Amino acid sequence: MHARGHHVEAIYSPLRAEDGFVRELTEIGLPAVHVVDMHRAPGPSDLPAFSAIQRIIRGAEPFDVIHGHSSKAGALTRLRFPGRHVPRVYTPHAFRTMDPTLGRGGRLIYGAVETALAWFYTDHLIAVSEDERAHALSIGIPEARMSVVVNGVLAPSPEMAQTVRVSFGIPADAFVYGFIGRLAAQKAPERLLEAFQRVAHSVGNSHLVMVGSGEAEEELRRYIAESGLKERIHLTSAFTGPQAVCAFDLLVMPSRYEAMSYVMLEAAAAARPIIISNVGGAHTAVDHGENGFIVENSDDVSQLAKAMIAATDPERYAELAEAAEARKNRFTLGQMLDRTEEIYRRLAARRRG
């Protein structure tokens, strides 16, 4: 949006932001980037975060639209006093209620909060996939104030691929499985480590590169150290996802829930085959058996490991890679920006009118 000539200011929390994200954000050249501590879990710290966001909104130039992303920032940016206001847009990027491990009580509480915020404080909700839209309707979010705008990405550059491989001493002929994401329960990195332990014995020249950081990092590093495969499993946050993805032969996403993962789309734009659990958005980007595999969303990693092994067969991999190449232009950043800009303009015009 900044490149299209709009005045854009950003607010982010440093508590979960990776260095690469912060670096990329600051390099865009926005007129202002604001830092506000926001903890993932609800708690007393939400009050000072809410106050800080309100001060930023009041102190900046009058905005035409305020857009909150993900549940915490989405809630804190939408809450306001009744009456005339700057339109609020919300993109959940996977509702908490899409988590299959969430109990009935948690599902009711989070669902009630999302529904109340949607009815009383949200001018428009953007779902990033048909799966997320269907889920939103199932928890009572009004259809009239909702649109589907599928995420779009720039095609990652391959210029860092060799650097990534060399930095870990990965041989040129090795088959590299890749993971990109937050090291947290939602992304289920422990599933991938368990699956790779099974795969490593069958695919002797395989390596696993995991790019990310998060609350599970210490536990995962212990697992790697005790796995007997520490020379073939590489966990790092030194590279961003777009820098690393072209170093992979295949992306593996064992997530417990998603809406429409940017990581998945970046891999698709890089023409990389994908193995993904059956989560939101998976069927949008992956045609099972053609440019990848969609496996059971389960802590039993047998099916995941089997798919990882199957993908390394030279003839099978060539077919997967060819299909991935044919699909790499499906999800462009331009298409996403066009649809989002259309929503912004409609809301701004309604407010002015």
**CATH topological fold name of the largest domain:** Rossmann fold
Cα end-to-end separation: 23 Å
| Element order: H for helix, E for strand | EHEHEHEHEHEHEHEHEHEHEHEHHH
- Give the number of DSSP strands: 12
The CATH architecture of the largest domain can be named as 3-Layer(aba) Sandwich
Provide the CATH superfamily of the largest domain.
Answer: Glycogen Phosphorylase B
Task: Give me the number of helical elements.
Answer: 14
- Rounded radius of gyration (Å): 21 Å
CATH class category label of the largest domain: Alpha Beta
Class by SSE composition: alpha/beta
* Number of individual domains: 2
Beta-strand level of the residues, as a percent range?
5-15%
Shape: globular
Strand ordering within the main sheet? 9-8-7-10-11-12
Q: What summary fits the major beta sheet?
A: 6 strands, parallel
Overall pLDDT metric: 96
Stretches where pLDDT is under 50 for at least 5 consecutive residues are none
Proportion of residues in helical segments: 40-55%
Characterization of this structure:
With about 350 residues, the protein is of the alpha/beta class. It has 2 domains: about 10-150 and about 330-350, 3-Layer(aba) Sandwich (Rossmann fold), CATH 3.40.50.2000; about 160-325, Rossmann fold (3-Layer(aba) Sandwich), CATH 3.40.50. Helix content is about 40%, strand content about 15%. It has helices at about 20-25, 45-60, 70-80, 105-120, 130-140, 160-165, 190-200, 215-225, 240-245, 260-270, 280-285, 300-310, 315-325, 335-350, and strands spanning about 10, 30-35, 65-70, 90, 125, 145-150, 175-180, 205-210, 235, 250-255, 275, 290-295. The chain has a 6-stranded parallel β-sheet with strand order 9-8-7-10-11-12, with helices on both faces. It is globular and about 65 Å long. The model has no long low-confidence stretch (mean pLDDT about 95).
